[in-house]
Amino acid sequence: MKTFLTLAVLAALLPAAARADAEHSHAHREARAFGEPGDPHKPARTVEIVMTETEDGKMLFEPISVAVKRGEQIRFVLKNTGRIDHEFMLATRAENDRHAAQMRKNPDMEHDEPNGRRVAPGKSDEIIWKFSISGEFNFACLIPGHREAGMDGVVAVK
Questions:
Q1: 38: left (phi over 0), alpha (psi -120 to 50) or beta
Q2: Inter-residue long-range contacts of 100-109, CB under 8 Å, 24+ positions, other chains counted
Q3: What gap in Å lies between CA 157 and CA 31, rounded to an integer?
Q4: Quick check: 81 and 50 in contact, CB under 8 A?
Q5: Which residues of 26-43 are buried (b: 16+ CB within 10 A; e: fewer)?
Q6: CA distances for 102 relative to 19, 28, 71, angstroms
Q7: Nearest 10 degrees: Cα torsion 84, 89, 94, 100
Q8: So what's the pLDDT on residue 28?
């Protein structure tokens, strides 16, 4: 009887879990205030972003700014040449400010989202993003202390 009840409860919960997962993955594909996830099957301009730190404690993105045309799709190649984890989170400045506050409360939060990745030392990753909206947007490393040490950049979309 216990087994039957357990199976009945699990069967009742499965549709809700499937809906939640579908809603979660849908959120990853939708447009945001700073553009939308790119299509890996379409052409994209490659922009390499190097993430590192210096001996004197500064943390850097190279380059610190990127100019993009409205409608352009960019393939950001993220290379961590440093000795510690870094991340690249693309958003509006206000969204990254809010996210940074969450990261201070949960510093081990990792990202594998269409607009953000955490990259281990010596590793690379990539993000494909279509900038469908004009404006000035932010990319930052939101690991506590990294943005404040210099890992804060701009994407200017004209």
A1: beta
A2: 100/140, 100/142, 100/144, 100/147, 103/142, 103/143, 103/144, 104/144, 107/143, 107/144
A3: 16
A4: yes
A5: eeeeeebebbbbbeeeee
A6: 26, 19, 31
A7: -30
A8: 47
Q: How confident is the model at residue 97 (pLDDT cuts 50, 70, 90)?
A: very high
φ and ψ of 28, to 5 deg: -70, -20
pLDDT 10s digits, 16-54: 333 333 333 333 456 666 789 999 999 899 999 999 999
Residues 88, 143 contacting (CB under 8 angstroms) = no
Q: How many helices (H) and strands (E) does the chain have?
A: 2, 11
136: CB partners within 8 A, 6+ apart: 93, 154, 155, 156, 157
Residues ≥6 apart with Cβ < 8 Å to 78: 49, 51, 88, 117, 119, 124, 125, 126, 127
What's 11's DSSP letter?
A: H
Tell me the C-alpha distance between 61 and 81, whole Å. Answer: 10
Structure tokens at 51: 């993430």
Pairing of strands 59-62, 36-37: unpaired
pLDDT at 30 (0 to 100): 60
Residue 71, Ramachandran bin (φ over 0: left; ψ between -120 and 50: alpha; else beta): left
CB 76 within 8 A of CB 47: yes
